[in-house]
Design a protein that fits this description.
The complex is a heterodimer. Chain A is α+β, with helices and mostly antiparallel strands. Helix content of chain A is 53%, strand content 15%. In chain A, helix 5 crosses helix 15 and helix 19 crosses helix 22. Chain B is α+β, with helices and mostly antiparallel strands. In chain B, a hairpin with a 5-residue loop joins strand 2 and strand 3. In chain B, helix 1 (12-24) crosses helix 2 (29-39) and helix 1 (12-24) crosses helix 4. The chains are: A alpha+beta, B alpha+beta.
Chain lengths: 883, 115
């Protein structure tokens, strides 16, 4: 070890050590000379003798160096210096190679990091995420939630789990000190939740089982963000008392920075089992379990299903048809197709990297061919091929190292951009780049270096001493072999580019289908929408809130340019409230009836969206809290539930397990408007209720139809709202048309991932296309410059410029054509994987399949055209004299 | 000077250097080379330069130490001396060498009888 160290150090002291050796050799010769003189030799003879006996000073010096240093590393350092010198000489090549590689590596590592976050990492700071399972129950009505008692049964009976925790949600008002009361969102959790996730509070203590016992003193743990914004990050907060819904509770802890679970809420409080807990009413958000070592997801699922079957038999009234659904983090929070989406993006990133490597292989081969003679002379002189291959590899490695460093910056930027652009409050993601990502970057940089060194190394192996010296006689067109390799690489690149182009093509078309789907709303460009949000407790009763809505409507209608106005519980395309319901006079199915979306709208709603009632009437100002509860259904609802009957006058009501709900009389049927279908393919059955008969008003959406461009009145609307009541905040203010656009915050989980997917896929396709085009250009340009003399000869014996152009194009486009055919065949298979992500487009969409090759061939023609023109301008006289 | 000289076996030069330094004490490179030549009766003759590769090797293994000094006739020279580790190593190498010589001698003697 020590020896290696000394030898290693000697690498850096080369000059000093050499000088010392020289001194020592001088002194040796001086001593020897004196010795000979003493023995009676004449001085000149003595000096000669001393030198002869010492032997060659240079070769001793070499032996000296070898035994003191690390000859191999010295060789590598020499190669490195040589590589740097060569790259400095050939700046254009070095720059192209580094930029290409840096982009490809950066893209690849970015996708890797994002995929890692989306599929494997889970909630921030959580330990061993791969063992965590998120559980909900699916009800026959289509809704998903869980009941506390079912959870208790699972926890008591399931053996696949090490532990299981329960998470519900609650809006609370929270106040402390003299301050105003704040709105806060709380998760009500079982006290073991943080222990199960293996995250400890950064301040104070975790919940203990005693905290949720009946009669226990209320406690609360704060989210770090909430603690900083509302409590100024003061440590003394621990142990103080706050009021939660007017009841004092002690702050016992603050969770670490960046920790959110399961969404961005403000506080966690223990789940208190009130009297309603004994009813098996679904109320919680989800349960989270940690699998025992050795258990897997399938076993756990089977086990919970068995338990639910038992519950079904024991409690048919509440549990019939209720099935547990178990999912990993990514299935549950990113979407069921997360692995398809991010896995395929990763593969796409590899395609891009492979294309980049093929480019570099072609360029490096071209450079190697340029050094053909140099190499063959060296081989003839006895140099080892290994040494030459090492030189090529060191050069590749130098390029990839620089590209890798740049790639790391690109990754940092890319991941940050992705995180910002796709942020959604429903997804808690941890995008920190860790050492694993760095290791991956190093590994793929190395892999890239090896990949694109293989071809030129193979070339070196082909060099024969004789053959090489002969075949590279000046002016002879290089062998067919080199060109064949280049053609194969080009064809491969084109095939990969086609696969990416057609994949991106169908995804983009699918996204366009979603974004531009018919929503049933007339002229959405001229509708302004917004959400009025006020602090809970601002209006003590629904009547007070409705009073505010009345004042708002009256004010807004006076703004010039506004034609119609309506409030609504949600705007078109978004999700209404899903409720199970029953129809009067129809036997209620035992598992609790079907669920449809319910929306509350103002009297002029159907005028604003330009969908006037087909039969019956609109809501009017007379439909208020005290009057007959009424409902309007859409065509889809009427067709499904009263296919051959007149819906007007029929009655329906919510199914409410706590108390029977009021009957609602149908007074009108309206045209279909898109609501709550993420892919926007289907008009779902809807029930509209009057906004002013709502039992609770926690905020309001509004829609304003304008007679002038909406931009002209937006400022006035904003000002009126501010003037009317400064406590009311205007949110999500935009036009209805814009709100139909792709927005991860508005789409459901699965489809917002699809949107992101379709949005980034073209980046890959464009990069692939550009890289492939650059590669093709480089190959053709190189081949033209190699064939200058041949072209000159052809022209001299009568070829027209047009013939030369055709020759160059044919050489370039043949591999392109082969690549296109292979690529199309491959993409027919590959696109099938994307099936789940496609809306209204078949995976082998003929338009995409026709466009992708056309685009590619046009770009390829352009890439060939430039060198072809150069070939046409070759002057035979100059070319024949050349070299 | 005789024409044919003994080629040195790998590693034997190191042993001779160690032995020389052990017997004569600190000595410069030329002195070591001279001494080996004299003792071998000019049978072993190296390019004296090669001794320095051996010296650097031994130094790295910490078997000898080196220091610049002044020779008897007032010339600056680098003096080498054997270390404790070097002495131990020398003993080991000697035993090793003797065993090897004994074996080779026996083998050669046996093949001599056979022919």
């Amino acid at each position: 070890m020590r020896q290696i160290w000394i030898r290693f150090l000697s690498l850096f002291k080369k000059r000093d050590l050499d000088r010392e050796f020289d001194d020592e050799a001088d002194s040796h010769i001086a001593l020897a000379t004196e010795d000979y003189v003493q023995r009676g030799m004449p001085l000149v003879e003595a000096q000669r003798m001393a030198r002869v006996r010492f032997g060659s000073i240079e070769s001793s010096k070499d032996a000296h160096r070898d035994s003191r240093g690390l000859p191999r590393i010295e060789g590598l350092l020499y190669d490195l210096r040589f590589a740097l010198r060569r790259l400095r000489h050939d700046r254009a090549f070095a720059l192209t190679a580094i930029v290409t590689l840096a982009l490809a590596i950066g893209l690849n590592v970015t996708v890797f990091a994002v995929m890692n976050t989306m599929l494997f990492r889970g909630f921030p700071l959580v330990q061993r995420n791969e063992r965590l399972v998120y559980i909900q129950e699916q009800y026959p009505s289509g809704t998903g939630n869980i009941t506390y008692l079912d959870f208790e049964d699972w926890r008591a009976q399931a053996h696949s789990f090490e532990g299981m925790a329960f998470v519900g949600e609650k809006n609370i008002s929270l106040s402390y000190g003299e301050g105003r009361s704040l709105d806060a969102s709380a998760f009500t959790v079982s006290t073991n939740v943080f222990g199960l996730l293996r995250v400890k509070p950064t301040l104070g203590r975790d919940f203990v089982p005693a905290d949720d016992a009946a009669g226990a003193a209320p406690v609360v743990i704060l989210n770090h963000r909430f603690w900083e914004s509302q409590f100024g990050g003061r440590q003394e907060v621990i142990g103080t008392s706050v009021l939660i819904n007017k009841v004092p509770a002690t702050v016992i802890g603050v969770m670490p920075e960046g920790f959110d679970f399961p969404t961005q809420f403000d506080v966690w409080i223990p789940y208190m089992r009130g009297p309603e807990v004994n009813q098996r009413i679904p109320e919680a958000f989800l349960a989270v379990g940690r699998l025992r070592d050795g258990a897997n997801l399938q076993e756990a699922r089977a086990e919970l299903e068995t338990i639910n079957h038992r519950l079904e038999a024991a409690y048919p009234a509440t549990n019939r048809g209720v099935v547990p659904s178990l999912a990993t983090y990514s299935q549950s929070f990113i979407g069921p197709d997360a692995s398809v989406i991010y896995g395929s993006l990763w593969v796409a990133a590899w395609f891009v990297l492979l294309i980049a490597c093929a480019n570099l292989a072609n360029l490096t081969v071209a450079r190697t061919v340029g050094r053909w003679r140099d190499f063959s002379i060296r081989i003839a002189l006895g140099a080892g091929r290994g040494r030459m291959m090492r030189q090529i590899f060191v050069e590749s490695l130098t390029l990839t190292s620089v590209a890798g460093v740049l790639g790391w910056w690109i990754t940092k930027w890319g991941v940050r951009t992705w995180a910002v652009e796709t942020a959604s409050i429903y997804q808690i993601l941890d995008y920190t780049l860790d050492s694993g990502t760095l290791a991956y970057l190093v590994a793929i940089s190395l892999a890239a270096a090896i990949l694109f060194s293989l071809a030129p190394m193979g070339k070196v192996l082909q060099i024969g001493v004789n053959g090489a010296l002969k075949s590279e006689a000046p002016g002879v067109t290089p062998g067919v072999r080199g060109k064949r390799l280049a053609a194969v690489l080009v064809a491969g690149q084109m095939a990969l580019a086609i696969v990416l182009l057609s994949g991106a093509g169908v995804l983009v078309r699918s996204l366009m289908n979603v974004v531009s789907a018919d929503t049933g709303v007339g002229d959405p460009e001229h509708v302004l929408v917004g959400f009025l949000s006020w602090p809970s407790g601002k209006f003590p009763s629904p009547a007070a809130a409705l009073g505010y809505v009345d004042r708002f409507e009256a004010k807004v209608r006076t703004i010039p340019g506004i034609v119609d106005e309506s409030v609504a519980s949600n705007i078109p395309v978004n999700f209404g409230t899903q409720r199970a319901f029953e129809i009067e006079g129809r036997p209620n199915p035992p598992e609790g009836g079907e669920a449809v979306q319910f929306l509350r709208v103002g009297p002029d709603y159907f005028r604003v969206v330009e969908a006037p009632a087909i039969s019956g009437r609109d809501f009017n100002d007379g439909d208020r809290t005290a009057t007959l509860p009424v409902a309007i259904v859409n065509q889809s609802f009427a067709a499904r539930y009263w296919p051959r009957e007149q819906p007007l006058g029929k009655r329906l009501r919510y199914i409410d397990l706590k108390q029977p709900a009021e009957w609602l009389t149908v007074v009108g049927v309206v045209p279909n408007i898109m609501q709550g279908d993420a892919t926007r393919r289907q008009f779902k059955p809807l029930v509209y209720l009057p906004f002013r008969q709502a039992p609770r008003v926690l905020g309001a959406n509004f829609l304003l139809r304008t007679g002038v461009p909406p931009g002209q009145v937006a400022q006035a609307v904003r000002a009126e709202i501010q003037k009317l009541d400064p406590d009311v905040v205007l949110k999500k203010f935009t036009t209805l048309k814009v709100s139909f656009g792709f927005d991860p915050g508005r789409m459901d989980r699965g489809h917002s991932e699809m949107g992101k997917y379709a949005a980034v896929a073209p980046i890959f396709a464009v990069m692939a296309l550009l890289l492939a085009a650059v590669g093709l250009y480089a190959v053709i340009a190189h081949s033209v410059s190699q064939r200058t003399k041949e072209i000159g000869v052809r022209m001299a014996i009568g070829a027209a410029a047009e013939d030369i152009r055709r020759m160059v194009l044919r050489a370039g486009m043949l591999p392109v054509a082969i690549g296109v055919i292979l690529g199309l065949a491959a993409s027919l298979g590959v696109n099938r994987i994307l099936q789940s992500q496609l809306v209204g487009v078949p995976p082998d969409d003929p338009i995409t399949m026709a466009c992708a090759p056309v685009v590619l061939i046009l770009v390829a023609l352009l890439a060939c055209q430039i060198p072809a023109r150069r070939a046409m301008r070759v002057d035979p006289v100059v070319a024949l004299r050349h070299d | 000077m005789p024409d044919s000289k003994l080629d040195l076996l790998q590693g034997t030069l190191d042993l001779m250097v160690l032995q020389t330094l052990d017997v004569l004490g600190p000595l410069h490179g030329y002195g070591i080379a001279r001494r080996i030549e004299q003792l071998s009766g000019n049978e072993v003759l190296l390019n004296q330069g090669t001794i320095y590769a051996s010296l650097v090797r031994l130094q790295q293994r910490c078997w000898i130490a080196a220091e610049w000094g002044v020779s008897d006739n007032n010339r600056k020279a680098k003096f080498y001396s054997i270390t404790k580790a070097g002495k131990r190593q020398m003993k080991e190498d000697q035993t090793q060498w003797e065993r090897l010589v004994a074996v080779i001698t026996r083998v050669l003697a046996a093949s001599g009888e056979g022919s």
